[in-house]
Amino acid sequence: MAIFDLHHPWLFVFGVLGNIISVFVFLAPVPAFRRICKEKSTMGFQSLPYVVALFSSMLWMYYAFIKKNAILLVSINSFGCIVETIYISIFILYASKQARRQTVKLLVGLIGVLYTLIFLVTLFPLNGVLRVQVVGWICVTVAVLVFAAPLSIVFQVVRTKSVEFMPFTLSFFLTLSAIMWFGYGLLLKDMCIALPNVLGFFLGMIQMLLYAMYRNVKPTSDLEKKVPEHVITMVTVGNSEQIHPVKSEDMINKLDDVAADQPSDDEYNVSPPAPVANDHAGGVLAKVNVPQPLETPVLVVCAA
């Protein structure tokens, strides 16, 4: 079995290339986090992809340690754990209270509870080959779920004919990474490493194909429709300089009541400097566009 030892040249080549390419995949969110640091806000981004990536890297590290002779698997997932921890720390630093609480809950649930449970259940009751097999198939299950996550982005691309949230570079490196780790697992005769990357390869190919199809196609929706907006109706009555957001129905009812008592429309002043439309009762409607949180690119890393 010396041909499948770590020193086998092709096994070493696939492992090293897998490490190099996976580093680029792990570093893909760096521009987003530089923007977060610059704006001092998470801007609607979600922490879920990074917590899941940390959880996945920790599982593969555990698997590599108990399997032995998988030093290249240990190296890239060690790097992944460090990078994802930095991402999550930055996110927590600049997140709102609600987003911070959600992130902490995810960390406690996935890392503190689920990972610890997997570690304890497989470390003490199981041993030898059985432990390796059980942990390996747990890693396969998690990897398949992680690889399946970008399907929502794929459906969004097909629906909107826009590749805005599916950058070609990330899809390309994900495909290369899947090829390298599939070859590594095949040469190592480890189906737990090879199988998930078959799905990763096909998913990456689908993403690149969609990018080629829609990269020059204008989205089906107008530019205004691409950024959903909340409409806040504001009204000023009398000489008051205060502006209060109200529901449209409530505002109309109130203006009807006020219009019955007010003979002139001159008493209704517009506080916003921008031109606005007058309502039928002499009130003033102001439309304020509040952009929805930014879409969060789905980060998929399966360095195994």
From TrEMBL:
Organism: Anisodus tanguticus
Transcription regulation in keyword set: no
Major place of residence: membrane
GO molecular function ontology, one term from the record: sugar transmembrane transporter activity
Protein localization: Cell membrane
Keywords, ordered alphabetically: Cell membrane, Membrane, Repeat, Sugar transport, Transmembrane, Transmembrane helix, Transport
Biological function: Mediates both low-affinity uptake and efflux of sugar across the membrane.
Record membrane topology: Multi-pass membrane protein
Residues passing through the membrane, by range: 12-33, 45-65, 71-94, 106-128, 134-158, 165-187, 193-214
Gene3D superfamilies associated with the record: 1.20.1280.290
Record flagged with keyword Cell membrane: yes
Protein family: Belongs to the SWEET sugar transporter family.
InterPro entries: SWEET, SWEET_rpt
Record-given protein name: Bidirectional sugar transporter SWEET
Taxonomic placement: Eukaryota, Viridiplantae, Streptophyta, Embryophyta, Tracheophyta
PANTHER family in the record: BIDIRECTIONAL SUGAR TRANSPORTER SWEET15, RAG1-ACTIVATING PROTEIN 1
GO cellular component, one term: plasma membrane
